C-alpha cells in the first residue's frame, strides 16, 4: 500500500504543509506550484528564494556532468571516487567564480 509510512500527528491527521503558488501579473492562471514543510512563520521572501534556487542546483548539476566530467569516473574505490568528485566540484567552483568576476571577458 502506497504512502502507509507518512508520519502523522498524534491525533492521526497529516502534518500541515504550505502551498506556494506563482501567478505572474497578466497570466490567466498560475505558472508554478511548490509544497513545503517549512514552518508557517517562514517569511515569504525566504520561501520564494528556496523554491527558485532549484534551477540553480539543476544548472550546476548539468554543468558538473556534461562539462566538468563528474559522470566520467570509472574507478573502483571510494577514495578514487572521492578524489574525482572533489576535483570536479573544485573545477565547478572555479568556473562559477570566473563567471561572476566582472573583470573577466565573456567567452566568445
TrEMBL record:
It comes from the Bacteria. This is SRSO17 transposase. Coiled coil: none annotated. GO terms for molecular function: DNA binding; transposase activity. It comes from Streptosporangium album. Signal peptide: none annotated. One of its GO terms (biological process) is DNA transposition. InterPro entries: IS701-like (IPR039365), RNaseH-like_sf (IPR012337), Transposase_11 (IPR002559).
Amino acid at each position: 500500500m502506497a504512502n502507509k509510512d507518512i508520519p502523522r500527528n498524534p491525533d492521526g491527521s497529516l502534518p500541515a504543509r504550505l502551498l506556494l503558488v506563482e501567478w505572474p501579473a497578466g497570466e490567466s492562471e498560475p505558472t508554478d506550484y511548490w509544497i513545503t514543510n517549512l514552518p508557517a512563520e517562514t517569511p515569504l521572501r525566504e520561501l520564494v528564494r528556496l523554491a527558485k534556487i532549484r534551477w540553480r542546483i539543476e544548472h550546476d548539476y548539468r554543468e558538473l556532468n556534461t562539462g566538468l566530467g563528474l559522470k566520467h569516473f570509472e574507478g573502483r574505490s571510494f577514495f578514487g571516487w572521492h578524489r574525482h568528485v572533489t576535483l570536479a566540484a573544485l573545477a565547478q567552483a572555479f568556473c562559477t567564480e570566473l563567471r561572476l568576476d566582472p573583470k573577466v571577458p565573456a567567452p566568445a
